Amino acid sequence: MSTSVPPPDESTHFLHMIQNQLDRSARIVELPEHVRGILSQPKNEIIVNFPVLMDDGSHRMFKGYRIQHNNVLGPYKGGLRFHPDTRLDECKALAMIMTFKCALLDIPFGGGKGGVKCDPRSLSEGELSRLTRRFTHALGANIGPEYDIPAPDVGTNAKLMVWIMDTYMNTAGYTERNAQQRVVTGKSLEVGGSQGREKATAQGLVHCLTEWARDKGISLEGRTALVQGYGNVGSHSAMILARLGVSIIGVGDHSGYMLNPEGFNTHRLADHVRKHGSIEGYSKNHTATREEFFSHKADFFIPAALQNQIGEKEATLLQVQLVAEGANNPTMPDGEHILLQRGIDVIPDVLANAGGVTVSYYEWVQNGRNESWDLEEVEMRLERAMKRAYQRVVDFAHDNRCSMRDAAYSLALLRLKQVYAQRRIFP
Ligand code: NAD
């Protein structure tokens, strides 16, 4: 019988990366060991197995997760991911990231994340609806408007958030039904969503990129960018950057990659993806390999797909000045080391993609107060929040001679450290 330990799968490796990042920044801010220990694991790990009636009359079992990492700053908050590779450790890593993101942005939320192991593209609308509703039912009281508030992530969107909200509301008593609307954020506008939420993650990323360019004394007009992932974060980043004069000369998603030195029409491409589910078939003349995409010269690289996309190889290939992380943890530590050595700046995920949870918080506040803010108000608040966080991270990195990632995590830990110092550990 073999006694060898099987190698950790990719999601376990992902979790270890985030735990190591916690340890690095814990040393920088001299975080008490017991707080580091608390933050290195989630508080709650929920796994549910549930049946779904398929269109052919059969029943299929699905596995869903909800990880509640930490709620010392407020209710658990984080997305739901519908993807065939969704795993427990992946959700744990992503939930940890959420705790640090909310702490960095000074949002009164903790960190959570979850998802269902499934391929939403292979499901009919009816199957997706029954799966989403049955998953919500299986989670039961593990989510709630004052306790744990999901949002969209990879493979989920406003439509699914509305189904979750509706299912949750229908399980509540009549008198308190309307108070349950804010059990999820990222809803459509018509049923309680916020203006600006759909593009908020991308908008926040562009605020960071604009601040970076201002600090470098460069104009965005005439610059070029590569965007990996053309879903919510990728497509909106591309469209907002294009409006600022940046040419999107490379795009990629799960179906492949394309390069066009003239720049793509970002809106037309977004329409194509909405209709066909991917960039495939948009233009036969511009197809490229993943390696050609990564090695193409441009000013900015926006990873907006999945984690662990920039390892040693990709970091060596990239010919850009800046990586602005739209995705969560797209850059692996070895990759980041090479990027920084090569003088390529990295705006880390916990900062760069925090616009999404920031406007989710605004949505939750609006629902709670029965208010509806106009787009101008949301955008003004988001811009102020992002620019303030960006400046704090840059200043901390400068003062402590560390990377922006170390700085962002350290600032988040300082916030958590203060709260644990005052609240202490029960009893
Ligand atoms: P989405 O489902 O709308 O889009 C995901 C994109 O990634 C799609 O274009 C898909 O084709 C592409 N993709 C999937 N697998 C790929 C692969 N192997 N190679 C290349 N591309 C691949 O999801 P989204 O909401 O845009 O999320 C993208 C990333 O941004 C995720 O890491 C997510 O956690 C992060 N994020 C999202 C939000 C948000 O508000 N939606 C907020 C913060 C962070």
Any descriptors?
427 residues; alpha/beta; 7-stranded mixed sheet; 5-stranded mixed sheet; 15 helices; 12 strands; binds nicotinamide-adenine-dinucleotide
Overall description:
There is one protein chain. By secondary structure, the protein is of the alpha/beta class. 46% of the residues lie in helices and 16% in strands. The strands form two sheets. It has a seven-stranded mixed sheet, with helices on both faces. It has a five-stranded mixed sheet with strand order 1-2-4-3-5. The chain starts with 9 loop residues before the first helix and ends with a helix. It binds nicotinamide-adenine-dinucleotide. Nicotinamide-adenine-dinucleotide is lined by residues 152-155, 201, 228-234, 252-254, 278, 304-306, 326-328, 353, 356.
